[in-house]
Write a structure and sequence with these properties.
Order of helices and strands: EEHHEE
Shape: globular
Helix content: 10-25%
């Protein structure tokens, strides 16, 4: 438990003051970070134009109170109308401790976009 990270290599645009060679966001029991949300955008930039990261975080917080298994909760959030849009190429959830993974390249059937 508590093993997971999102590593960003070489941020672009050194003029904006955000230039670093890499950074790492990790799970942290002390900070209460039990999930990390990663989209195909830069996590450090404001998400006004694409609210999926914020919506994913809200869905994950709600699922914390669910009786479903964690992989089912994550899968439900990822394939929800809030997150799954025509730009979604695939969805994948892996649970190394269980040696299981779930994958689909099927398009989202209910996009709100």
């Amino acid at each position: 438990p508590w093993q997971g990270a999102v590593i960003t290599i070489r941020r672009q645009n050194p003029q904006d003051g955000l230039h670093v060679d890499h950074d790492t966001r990790t799970l942290s029991k002390e900070a209460g970070t039990w999930y990390l949300v990663q989209m195909n955008d830069d996590w450090w930039r404001p998400d006004e134009l694409d609210p999926r990261r914020r919506e994913a975080a809200m869905l994950m917080e709600r699922t914390a109170k669910s009786n479903e298994s964690l992989p089912s909760r994550v899968w439900s959030a990822m394939r929800s109308a809030h997150l799954c849009n025509p730009a979604t190429w695939f969805s994948w959830v892996a649970v190394p401790a269980l040696r299981r993974s779930w994958y689909t390249s099927a398009p989202c059937s209910w996009s709100k976009w």
